[in-house]
Every structure is written in structure tokens, then in C-alpha cells.
Fold:
Amino acid sequence: MKTELILVGRTVSKEFARVIDDYRERITHYMPFAVSVIPELKNTKSLSEEQQKVLEGELILKQLQPADTVVLLDEHGREPRSVELAAWLEKKLQTARRLVFVIGGPYGFSPAVYERANEQLSLSRLTFSHQMVRAIFVEQLYRACTIIKGEPYHHE
Structure:
């Protein structure tokens, strides 16, 4: 199974970019994993939040294949513990052809993206910056991989 993380907009912080790249590299030891960036929209000051979500949504949908299992990182999603995420991931590794996680833009996702998604996950009830969510998510994905393999990274 291939796994991909789609991000809307580049990671601005060099520190977060280094963390994301470090965990991306670690994850590839467990499964094929790629990070794709959809470029930020230009001239967004003339767009409403809804228009921006729709345009970003069109770009996200172009990246998806019909058989993809699509998981949105969304504040309204299911909020698993790390061990629950690992169990969920282990099942997906056996059933999904390509598992695609999506972190949207600053205003969230368009209705079309929600409609296409198979699931939604939340990392916390707290609000984090989109830059920080990227780093937290790849760390949690790596943690899930180590839990599946029974490695000592995670402590209960």
C-alpha cells in the first residue's frame, strides 16, 4: 500500500519543514510514504473564504485517484489515541491500495472534498496552526508504525 500526505501550501517554517522531512524519511522504512504540496492560491485577498475553499478543493480532488482511501485531518473528525490510530492504520495497510491523508488550507475543506473523503481524523480538540499540524501528524504516523512493529518508541 502506498501512503501519501497532501498539504495545501508549503511549510513556511524551516524548523517544521525539517521535522516533517525527518519523520517522512523514518516512515519510509515502514511503508511507501510521500508528501505532496499543492501550491498556495495567488491573489486570495479578492476571494471569499468559501471561494478559496472551492478552488483549493478542486486542486485537492485533481490529486486523488478513484480507488484512493481519503482521510481528512479535520477538527470534526474522530479523535483516536495513538494505539487506536496504529490499529486503524494496520487494518488500512491490508485493505487500501493507496491511503491519502489531506491537510487543507486555513479555512478547511470544500463540500466536494468532504463528499469525496472516506474518513476524517482529528489530532486534538485543541487548535493548532496548519504548520504545526503537519509536524504533529507525521510524528503520529511514525509512532503508529512503531506501535504496529512493537518497537520501543511509544510508551504506554
Observations:
- Helices lie at 14-27, 49-63, 82-95, 111-116, 130-148.
- The chain is about 45% helix and 20% strand.
